[in-house]
Amino acid sequence: MSVKLRLQRHGRKAKPFYWIVAADSRAKRDGKYLEKIGVYSPTENPAHIELNLDQAVKWLQNGAQPTDTVRRILSHEGALLKNHLAGGVRKGALTEEQAKEKFQAWLEEKQAKVTAKKQSITEAEAAAKAKALEEEKRIAAEKQAAIDAELKAAEEAEAAAKAEAEAEAAGEEE
After folding, report:
1. Which fold has domain 3-66?
2. Which residues contact 8 (CB under 8 A, 6 or more apart)?
3. Around Cβ 64, how many Cβ atoms within 10 Å?
4. pTM to 2 decimals?
5. Per residue in 86-103, pLDDT tens?
């Protein structure tokens, strides 16, 4: 039996989220699976990923083949690196402590990148909101100026009509 690590679609139309599962390669996409190892939600920015690293590494070591998307997710979360380091420990190239240190250093670096990305996204959103607010204020000021001009023109026309009426009334009296 060939085992694949793949995505199993859930959610409603246009709002998908996926389970990352270990399943027989012959099973249907959303059919029977052997074990659920995580959740992936691509609709959020950045994408939300929950992954049980130990289970993922166990399946990789037992020969499960990830699909392309799951391979990218596993790489992003560090499961492939952890599997690689475990292989180095088995071969004697690394000690368990060295492997843990390398993995922790990678995790810290990755966390810093994710934090920076989230911060840049929030800054971009704040800048967009500020720009939209300024544009709305400018448009409102233009509209108010147009309304004031119309009112002033109407008042001048009314004053001119009143003056004309007074002139006619003064002309009739003479």
Report:
1. S16 Ribosomal Protein; Chain: A; (3.30.1320)
2. 18, 19, 20, 21, 23, 29, 30, 33
3. 21
4. 0.67
5. 888 888 888 888 888 999
